[in-house]
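Each lists sequence, tokenised fold; shown next:
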Amino acid sequence: MASTVEHITKATADTSAHAVKTNHEALTKGAQTAEHVAKASTEAVKKAVHNAEHAAKVGTEALTTSGNAAIAGFQELAKTYQEMAAKNAETLTASIAALTSVKSPIEFIALQQKLVTQGFHNAISDSSQIAKLTAAVFAATFEPMQKRI
């Protein structure tokens, strides 16, 4: 009986040792897996934060560039409008002076028709210049944002 008890004790000790060893290996492997998952998750979060920061930086730079282009463009438009207004005021003054210097009604009508024709052509030219400049301003303003898309 002593040998049976010893045999059972030894078998129980071996089984317990084997169970402890197996549990230890399983826990070690589980801890390593958890550590690996944690590292991978941390790297993924770091990468996502980096990408978000980069996108915000690029977006801010594009908005700044776009805003600067808009300011410069609108200043150019204002300058062009001022130049046109000054030119048109000079043309009006010269036209009035020319109309007051005519000697006959026939001469007055001929000059008036000439001035109306010149005014029409000038208006078309000015409108075309403003349209081209406005299109250029908007293209320059939105170009930085379109590059991001």
